[in-house]
Design goal:
heterodimer, A: about 140 residues, alpha+beta, 3 helices, about 40% strand, B: about 190 residues, mainly alpha, two-stranded antiparallel sheet, 6 helices, globular, disordered N terminus
């Protein structure tokens, strides 16, 4: 392969490299703890609108004043679009509230269920097959 | 354009072969004999084919298109140059053809002695084997649904249509999950993608 072509492919690979944590397909209960529901109020630092799941990155203030960063898995972008949520609804720094379940292996990882934006609009962002907690009602 | 696709096809075969070599470098001690008359000789287990061949490449297909919001605003990403589209096509071909590897019924589920990856939630390899053997037609059906889900992605890549490639991503994920729910964690009523 010519050097130029190789460089293009390397650059392409780097550009598209990171989309959320690398999670294989597992059952919900294998990755998230249904006994650890969370309500996270914070600000959006990053959002990835990508298949097969979207990702929200939010910063929350801790009682001691420190910041904790969360990575939140959402349903796929097509599902969120059908529920009325658009990628243009997101702006870095916006306030939001997310109900979620905490990760088992990674305590800073969570699976989102509902998202409430600063303007009060609420969206179900859970994956198909999540807990029957009524979040999708 | 034809030249690009021809090169990418050659590259795809090379990458696919390399992926298999990687998969095979982890010994799957069980190497069952092929059925009488079958020329297929599986070496890697289903788990190894998934982890070494399918997962890495389907991630490249999914991640090729999407959007990111950060401090810099909203950025849409998609392949632009011919080489970039050819790279995505290589991965889409790997996934599509790797589905055929899953149709080899004498392929072990996991290396001998390998445990469930999520005990109590996902079945053991032995339990999965029982389900597959009880329902081989169902297994083939789900694998071929998965393979078929790649067709719109390949067509989108051929047309260099980023939106169509993005739209194809949901169905690919759905067919993955359908099979996993049937054979890997059928008892996990509350399961997620």
């Amino acid at each position: 392969m010519k050097t130029k072509t190789m460089l293009v492919l390397l650059a392409f690979g780097a550009f598209f490299a990171a989309a959320g944590p690398a999670l294989a397909h597992h059952a919900f209960a294998a990755e998230y703890d249904v006994d650890k529901p969370l309500e996270l109020k914070g600000t959006l630092t990053k959002m990835e609108w990508v298949n097969p799941h979207g990702w929200l990155y939010i910063a929350t203030k801790q009682p001691d004043g420190s910041t904790k960063n969360w990575t939140i898995e959402t349903s796929g972008p097509a599902q969120m679009s059908r529920r009325g949520l658009k990628k243009t609804d997101f702006v870095a720094g916006m306030a939001l509230t997310v109900k979620a379940y905490q990760g088992i292996k990674d305590p800073a990882l969570a699976n989102g269920r509902t998202l409430v934006l600063a303007d009060g609009r609420s969206f179900y962002i859970g994956s198909v097959g999540g807990p029957n907690d009524g979040a999708d009602k | 354009m034809k030249c690009v696709f021809d090169r990418s096809a050659v590259a795809a075969v090379g990458l696919f072969t390399a992926s298999l070599l990687v998969a095979c470098s982890t010994p799957a001690a069980e190497n069952p004999a092929a059925p009488a008359g079958s020329p297929f000789r599986p070496v890697a287990s289903i788990r190894e084919v998934m982890n070494s061949v399918i997962d890495p490449s389907v991630d490249e297909v999914w991640n090729a298109v999407g959007s990111v919001v950060d401090q810099g605003g909203l950025t849409d990403r998609a392949p632009i140059k011919d080489e970039e589209w050819a790279e995505v096509r290589r991965h889409a071909l790997i996934v599509s053809e790797a589905a055929n590897l899953l149709l080899m019924h004498n392929r072990p589920v996991a290396p001998p002695g390998a445990p469930s990856l999520a005990p109590g939630v996902e079945l053991t390899p032995e339990e999965i084997r029982v389900l597959i053997d009880k329902n081989p037609e169902g297994w083939d059906f789900y694998v071929q649904q998965f393979q078929d889900s790649m067709t719109p992605a390949l067509a989108a890549i051929e047309k260099k249509d980023a939106q169509a490639l993005f739209d194809a991503g949901e169905k690919i994920d759905e067919t993955c999950e359908n099979c996993h729910q049937t054979f890997w964690y059928p008892k996990a009523v509350n399961s997620s993608r």
